[in-house]
Design brief:
- The complex is a heterodimer of chains A (88) and B (284).
- In chain A, 62% of the residues lie in helices and 0% in strands.
- Chain A is an all-alpha fold and 88 residues long.
- Chain A has one domain (7-79).
- The longest helix of chain A is centred in the N-terminal third of the chain and has 28 residues, at 7-34.
- The two termini of chain A are 38 Å apart.
- Chain B has 284 residues and is α/β, with parallel strands linked by helices.
- Chain B has one domain: Metal-dependent hydrolases (TIM Barrel), CATH 3.20.20.
- Chain B has an eight-stranded parallel sheet.
- The longest helix of chain B is centred in the first third of the chain and has 20 residues, at 43-62.
- Classes of the chains: A mainly alpha (88), B alpha/beta (284).
- Chain A binds chain B through residues 1-5, 13, 61, 63-64, 67-68, 70-76, 78-79, 82-88, and chain B through 112-114, 117-118, 121, 124-125, 128, 141-146, 149-150, 153-154, 157-160, 172-174, 200, 203, 205-210, 238-241.
- Bound molecules: zinc ion (ZN).
- Residues 7, 9, 32, 34, 106, 137, 218, 220 of chain B line the site of zinc ion.
């Protein structure tokens, strides 16, 4: 399934919305810079920096990539680690 | 357009919200048992909650012609207390034959702990033994991805389970594919802040198609909007999607999924003939 609208139509409809969201993001980074102290070593600050790289890259599925960036990893051996049996 | 909200916590909402839902075209809601914002102290606290879900909410929704269905469990947050959880699980069968009960839910994980996983598996076992459908809560924020994968790992490991009778809720961009590819139903939950928006939910419909996909408002005691599903409908329309696609996701899909529960007894509003109006459920 795809979207009924063309890229040009979507840009026409969404330009002001995306522009506003980018300005919000820019202003939030400015706010962090203006404030006393530094969060440069806070891992969340670094995640936000990496998120900008994901947005800037010309690659699909940016939303999914951001979600994974902000997620804890999945450990396939979790059952052994937590000692949880199965229902079988 | 008629629609069904398949995951909404009406015990947290006012009667005015029922009226608004009815005015927006909502004809049925399904309400999973959840965490009420504080830990309950005893199994009797849950017994009263289950009575509220199976008796009072049906009456209140009926005042506005909305059918009310429900799911029973002890939620993942309170499942950290294993002894209390087992008392509640032992009590659930008392309520399974009440009208409107669709199955066991919303069970799942919250912080992805050992106790949560143990109680999750015991709920799944109860559902399998009693032939009930299952509605699943997946964790939020950074815990969602590993928690959803752990849940899918436990579910796919149980060969007794019919995957077409399990709904995995609160999917987002990084979990939806796993849920659908494993053969489960997926629910997108729309929140005004911090989680999935109507716009992103429509993106997921466009990327994955409408098959086995549901959308809900959560409508709980936190920031949430009972109008979330109508917001989603409006976004689909703004993007030029067909009415048949919209109807499939917000009405036909929940009907198809719920129809697999023996507690699902529902007369579509367009099947009510004029002489039956107003339906007796409107009576106080
Ligand atoms: Zn819920």
């Amino acid at each position: 399934m795809s979207t009924p609208h063309t890229a040009a139509e979507i840009l026409e409809r969404e330009f002001l919305v995306v522009r506003a969201k980018l300005l919000e993001t820019a202003a939030a980074f400015d706010r962090l810079d203006r404030a006393e102290g530094s969060v440069a070593n806070d891992p969340r600050r670094q995640e936000l920096r990496q998120a900008l790289d994901v947005l800037a890259a010309d690659a699909p599925n940016r939303a999914e990539k951001l979600q994974l960036l902000f997620s804890l990893p999945y450990e396939p051996n979790w059952r052994k680690q937590l000692n949880v049996a199965t229902n079988k | 357009m008629y629609y069904i909200d398949p995951h909404i916590h009406m015990v947290s909402r006012t009667t005015d919200d029922y009226e608004s839902l009815a005015k927006m075209g909502c004809v049925a809601v399904s309400e999973p048992a959840f965490w009420a914002g504080f830990d309950r102290g005893s199994a009797d606290g849950f017994r009263d909650y289950f009575r509220q879900l199976t008796e009072f909410e049906q009456r209140r929704s009926g005042w506005y012609g909305i059918s009310h269905f429900t799911w029973l469990c002890i939620n993942a947050k309170e499942a950290e207390n294993v002894r209390l959880s087992r008392e509640v699980i032992a009590m659930i069968p008392e309520f399974l034959d009440k009208p409107g009960v669709l199955g066991i839910g919303e069970i799942g994980l919250n912080k992805n702990t050992k106790n949560e996983a143990i109680i999750f598996l015991e709920h799944v076992d109860l559902a399998v033994r009693t032939g009930e459908q299952i509605l699943i809560h997946t964790p939020h924020l950074e815990d969602k991805y590993p928690g959803t994968r752990m849940i899918l790992d436990m579910l796919t490991d149980d060969s007794r389970l019919d995957r077409g009778r399990v709904l995995v809720d609160h999917v987002e961009e990084h979990t939806i594919r796993h849920v659908l590819e494993d053969g489960f139903w997926a629910g997108m939950t729309l929140y005004p802040v911090s989680k999935c928006t109507p716009e992103r939910a429509v993106d997921m419909v466009e990327m994955y198609g409408p098959e086995r996909l549901l959308v809900n408002s959560a409508g709980d005691w936190g920031p949430s909007k009972p109008s979330a599903v109508p917001d989603f409908i409006l976004e689909l329309r703004k993007r030029g999607h067909s009415e048949s696609l919209i109807r499939r996701v917000v009405y036909e899909n929940p009907l198809t999924f719920f129809s697999q529960s023996r507690g699902f007894n529902f007369t579509p509003p367009d099947a009510v003939v004029a002489t039956e109006f107003p339906p007796s459920s409107f009576a106080r």
